[in-house]
Description:
Layout: E1 2-4, E2 7-9, E3 20-22, E4 25-27, H1 34-43, H2 86-95, H3 103-110, H4 123-133, E5 161-162, H5 184-187, H6 191-194, H7 201-211, E6 222-223, E7 227-229
Parallel strand pairs: 5-6
Antiparallel strand pairs: 1-4, 2-3, 4-7
Amino acid sequence: MTEVKSGVYTPFFGKKDTSILVRGFMMDVVPVTNSRFLEFVKRNPQWRRSQVKRIYAESNYLLNWTNDTTLSPAMDPEAPVTNISWFAAKAYCDAAGKSLPTVDQWEYAAMADETTEDARNKTSYNKDILSWYEKPNTAGNRVHQTPENVWGIADLHGLVWEWTADFNEVMLSGESRKDVSNDAAKFCGSGSIGATDLMNYAAFMRFAFRGSLKANYCVQNQGFRAVKNL
């Protein structure tokens, strides 16, 4: 893990003059890998593919494994684990004395590039992220093959989407064109009303993806990493 120091940032959705204080925390340098999750399920049989309850993980859970405790020969043990539900990711973090990052923690850490704590206004920053979205099958690549950002964290962009603790915090409520906590304000034409950075299409895509999830979903290009409060 590496330390992300306290700071203030303006979240992607909300009023332009609204800033959030993110207190310092520790974050995993890379996403949790296949090999590490394999160790976890060996110690915790209830999270093996054949044992997990469907309420906690749909049928795609660890679908690419050969069996409960064997990775497929085609899988890189040091690639990020995917086909993981939110419940399984949370259980892994809990067992390690850690937690899933909140959206604010994840976005705060992920807005940095190699030299700048907040690189969101750099053309190169958003261009690099969007170029990853266009590449197929990056989830099978080994972790830590891209440069670390200024906090010493790698792969926040470029490998997989990642679970956050409060991914489903934003719910449909109120009138769509007044209440920026409404999912419709994110994922349709009214998105421009609540967005604080209209050019940050990469963030639009992340929030849209989070809004499409349920906690038992297991997606082939989604993994996770853990944080720990200081």
